[in-house]
């Protein structure tokens, strides 16, 4: 005889209670009994939370530890210690995720990461102590609030590759460079559920320091440069169509000449945005970029962008080495809101992504 989720209540009513548990309470609720654990970990539970409007966006950032920076300065003044910060728009609260296993004094520098369902997948990067290039995969589960290792990225170690997720199961990786600084065309996909890597066809062009965005069933790889053009960024982009398992024709003029694609993002509606000349610009259907909002002066240096639910967060500083501030742009009305950020969360931001949990 199957036990009831909550004694004396029909299971459908019990589920209505459980889907209202905030994600921070998942690990505690899962420990109550086996039935609750199986329920909370199920895909159906996540679907029901989303349909019922109880999921919430969570912004994850790789951010320099501004509090610990002075303490670590004598040890290595040129290598700040990075960690994972999270911002919850619904509650306007900031917090830290637990340290990645094996990185007690920091976080893999220049790693790539993406949200997959209720998990955060971190791939590669450099060991901040040894500068060794890593192929390791670490997965943080927001249900259990724990880290575990995934299957290492296959092939030779690569750095500065593009990375993006379909948000459900797959993380796509393409480009970057090998240990001899040769730019790469190769690409692959990580199936989080199976913990397996699968190769996909090579891109048409080598792309080092490219940007990955998943939009409309396609993995878009934007910009980058080939081995012979070190640091001189391409204007082009190409997209891998998951349905056909092929790359589309190269789009020759996605960016301006010599533009770093780091700030390119896509909104929930599918529009591409980026920072350009002190402005937020939108990619029009004809292929041209048009300004939609002026960047606030105190985030114009080194901006990082993250989108969710018709919102665009910009984190940056007013000067090189300055405190990073945060603003949110309403993508329907193009109005700015400044976020309250404590000193603890004003360190330099390398990258960001958003999950719905």
Descriptive notes:
The protein is mainly beta and 357 residues long. Among the domains are: 41 residues, no CATH class; 162 residues, Neuraminidase. It has 5 helices and 24 strands. The strands form 6 sheets. Strands 3-2-1-24 form a 4-stranded antiparallel beta sheet, with no helix packed on it. Strands 4-5-6-7 form a 4-stranded antiparallel beta sheet, with no helix packed on it. About 2% of the residues have low confidence. One of its GO terms (biological process) is regulation of phenylpropanoid metabolic process. InterPro entries: F-box-like_dom_sf (IPR036047), F-box_dom (IPR001810), Kelch-typ_b-propeller (IPR015915), Kelch_1 (IPR006652), KMD1-4 (IPR044595). This is F-box domain-containing protein.
Helix vs. strand class: mainly beta
- Rg (C-alpha, Å): 21 Å
Query: SSE order in H/E notation?
Result: HHHHEHEEEEEEEEEEEEEEEEEEEEEEE
Low-confidence blocks of residues: 69-76
* Average of the residue pLDDT scores: 91
- Gap between N and C termini: 32 Å
Strands, count: 24
Tell me the β content.
35-45%
Globular, elongated, flat, extended or rod-shaped: what is the shape?
A: globular
Query: In CATH terms, what is the fold-level topology of one domain?
Result: Neuraminidase
CATH class of one domain: Mainly Beta
Number of helices: 5
How would a crystallographer describe the biggest sheet? 4 strands, antiparallel
Strand order of the largest sheet: 3-2-1-24
Identify the CATH architecture of one domain. 6 Propeller
Helix content: under 10%
Going by CATH, what is the homologous superfamily of one domain?
Kelch-type beta propeller
């Amino acid at each position: 005889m199957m036990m009831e989720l909550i004694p004396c209540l029909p299971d459908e009513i019990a589920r209505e209670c459980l889907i209202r548990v905030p994600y921070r309470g998942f690990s505690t609720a899962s420990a109550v009994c086996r039935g609750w654990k199986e329920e909370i970990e199920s895909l159906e539970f996540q679907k029901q939370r989303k349909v019922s409007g109880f999921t919430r966006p969570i912004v994850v950032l790789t951010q320099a530890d501004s509090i610990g920076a002075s303490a670590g300065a004598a040890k290595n003044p040129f290598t700040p210690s990075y960690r994972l910060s999270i911002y919850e728009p619904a509650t306007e609260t900031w917090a830290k995720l637990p340290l990645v296993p094996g990185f007690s004094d920091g976080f893999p520098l220049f790693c790539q990461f993406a949200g997959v369902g209720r998990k955060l997948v971190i791939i590669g990067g450099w060991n901040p102590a040894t500068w060794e290039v890593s192929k390791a995969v670490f997965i943080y589960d927001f249900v259990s609030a724990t880290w575990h290792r995934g299957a290492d990225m296959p092939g030779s170690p690569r750095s500065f590759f593009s990375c993006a997720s379909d948000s459900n199961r797959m993380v796509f990786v393409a480009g970057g460079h090998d240990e001899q600084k040769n730019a790469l065309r190769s690409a692959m996909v990580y199936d989080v559920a199976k913990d397996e890597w699968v190769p996909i066809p090579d891109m048409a062009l080598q792309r080092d320091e490219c940007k990955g965005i998943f939009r409309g069933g396609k993995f878009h790889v934007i910009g980058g440069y080939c081995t012979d053009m070190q640091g001189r960024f391409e204007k082009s982009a190409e997209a891998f169509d998951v349905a056909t398992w092929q790359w589309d024709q190269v789009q020759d003029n996605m960016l301006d000449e010599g533009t770093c694609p780091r700030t390119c993002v896509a909104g929930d509606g599918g529009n591409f945005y980026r920072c350009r000349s002190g402005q937020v610009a939108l990619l029009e259907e004809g292929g041209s970029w048009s300004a939609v909002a002026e960047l606030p002066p105190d985030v114009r240096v080194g901006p990082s962008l993250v989108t969710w639910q018709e919102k665009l967060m910009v984190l940056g500083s007013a000067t090189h080495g300055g405190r990073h501030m945060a603003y949110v742009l309403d993508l329907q009305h193009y109005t700015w809101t400044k976020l309250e950020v404590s000193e603890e969360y004003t360190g330099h931001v390398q990258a960001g992504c958003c999950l719905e949990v």
